[in-house]
Amino acid sequence: MYRTIIAVILWAGQLSAHEMTPTYPKMRLSYLEGAYETTMSIFNRRPEVRFYQIDVFDESFEPIPFATSYRIIQVEHLQRAQFDVYIRRVDLENATYICTSSKIARSDSSRTAIASRICSKIRKD
């Protein structure tokens, strides 16, 4: 029984798509007038995925305007990348989640692929 549980836990650990930290980012005043910023880090565990899209959402997962250097970032397998997210002061109250979604490249060899989205909840203190 215990061996089965341990095997399932180890197998489930291999399924994690990517990681994003911090889990609860705190926005800080930016050098840009009227904007706040935070720095996020993403780690890619999937060999078949190299690109991730960055999004910011409110509590109902409606898009919130934001700025970053690139909306889609390239992260090689087992590599980490950092990116900054800028949100206007007027949108900060509604901004709730910073998310990254895997972008699957189309190929003729594989028609099925699993996309993943990971979100960090913005701290409001």
Tell me the CATH superfamily: Immunoglobulins
For the record, the CATH architecture stands as Sandwich
Shape: elongated
CATH class: Mainly Beta
Which structural class matches the secondary elements? mainly beta
Largest sheet: 4 strands, antiparallel
In short:
This protein has 2 helices and 8 strands; from the N terminus they run H-E-E-E-E-E-E-H-E-E.
Structural descriptors:
125 residues, mainly beta, 2 helices, Immunoglobulin-like, four-stranded antiparallel β-sheet
Task: Describe the model.
There is one protein chain. With 125 residues, the protein is mainly beta. It has one domain (18-121): Immunoglobulins (Immunoglobulin-like), CATH 2.60.40. The protein is 14% helix and 38% strand. It has 2 helices and 8 strands. It has helices at residues 2-14, 89-92, and strands at 18-21, 28-29, 35-44, 51-57, 72-74, 80-88, 97-103, 117-121. The strands form 2 sheets. Strands 1, 2, 3 and 6 form a 4-stranded antiparallel β-sheet that branches. A 4-stranded antiparallel β-sheet has the order 5-4-7-8, with no helix packed on it. The longest helix has 13 residues, at 2-14. The radius of gyration is 17 Å and the shape is elongated. The model is unreliable at 6-14 (pLDDT under 50).
